[in-house]
């Protein structure tokens, strides 16, 4: 919703527009890399729920979990999906010059998507503990299809999609003081159907990918 306040602002993503010493690529890469470097110093990535987009640029971390589980990081895919699939669906074309704010909102979106999707590791751990008798043979057989079937809960997915659409409707309402007419009904800062579709097409499938990848390493 906050990112949708700005149009596409293409120069934010254009490496040639923001070329500066130290070659960071585009402005958004500069903002994400530099923020991650500062947040790493502050201990952000010692929290196993957090995953950097540019891990190669950060100092190595103390390993608290099974190293194989730590290595599951789908942020490259999240980066690609966010910029190439999601953003074009909900921002208007155009350029209002607010590139720094645009990159800051992109960073927020990327970090929250990454956290939500990598929660898959924790969800998978709970599922494994509840039903290890079913999961163990599939893990030993490297049977991704059976793992995917075991962890999939279609009714939960349906409820998640409904809930995010509802949240987008509630939090994305245009609020006007002294306006009791129905004029603003049905006007949202972000189309709730887009949010729901994005969850169904990308967020839930990526979460499930993380779950399967985590499970494949669970008995390492
Ligand atoms: O809640 C779960 O059981 C999950 O595994 C999470 C999640 C999701 O991404 O929302 C993913 C797979 C399930 O089919 C349902 C929902």
Task: List its traits.
single chain; 220 residues; mainly alpha; Chorismate Mutase, subunit A; 9 helices; 0% strand; binds prephenic acid; chorismate mutase; amino-acid biosynthesis
Task: Give a verbal description of the structure.
With 220 residues, the chain is an all-alpha fold. It has 9 helices and no strands. The longest helix has 26 residues, at 192-217. The structure holds prephenic acid. Prephenic acid binds next to α8 and α9.
Question: How would you summarize the topology of this molecule?
Answer:
Layout: H1 27-41, H2 67-70, H3 75-90, H4 99-118, H5 120-130, H6 132-140, H7 144-151, H8 154-171, H9 192-217
InterPro entries: Chorismate_II_sf, Chorismate_mutase_AroQ_euk, CM_AroQ_sf_eucaryotic, CM_II_prokaryot
Protein name: chorismate mutase
Domain Chorismate mutase: 99-211
Total count of helical runs of at least 4 residues: 9
Query: How would you name the CATH homologous superfamily of the largest domain?
Result: Chorismate mutase, AroQ class superfamily, eukaryotic
CATH architecture of the largest domain: Orthogonal Bundle
Q: If you consult CATH, what is the topology of the largest domain?
A: Chorismate Mutase, subunit A
CATH class of the largest domain: Mainly Alpha
């Amino acid at each position: 919703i906050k990112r949708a306040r700005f149009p596409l602002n293409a120069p934010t993503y254009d490496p040639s527009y923001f070329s500066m010493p130290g070659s960071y690529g585009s402005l958004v890469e500069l903002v994400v890399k530099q923020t991650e470097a500062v947040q790493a110093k502050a201990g952000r990535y010692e929290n196993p729920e957090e995953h950097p987009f540019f891990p190669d640029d950060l100092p190595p971390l103390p390993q608290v979990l099974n190293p194989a589980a730590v290595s599951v990081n789908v942020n490259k895919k999240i980066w690609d999906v966010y910029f190439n699939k999601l953003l074009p669906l909900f921002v208007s074309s155009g350029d209002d010059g607010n590139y720094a704010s645009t990159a800051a909102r992109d960073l927020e979106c990327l970090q929250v998507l990454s956290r939500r999707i990598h929660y898959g590791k924790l969800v998978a751990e709970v599922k494994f503990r509840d039903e290890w008798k079913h999961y163990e043979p599939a893990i030993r057989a490297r049977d991704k299809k059976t793992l995917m079937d075991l962890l999939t809960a279609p009714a939960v997915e349906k409820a998640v999609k409904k809930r995010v659409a509802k949240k987008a409707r509630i939090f994305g309402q245009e609020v006007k003081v002294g306006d009791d007419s129905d004029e603003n009904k049905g006007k949202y800062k972000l189309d709730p159907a887009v949010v729901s579709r994005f969850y169904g097409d990308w967020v839930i499938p990526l979460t499930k990918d993380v779950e399967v990848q985590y499970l494949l390493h669970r008995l390492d």
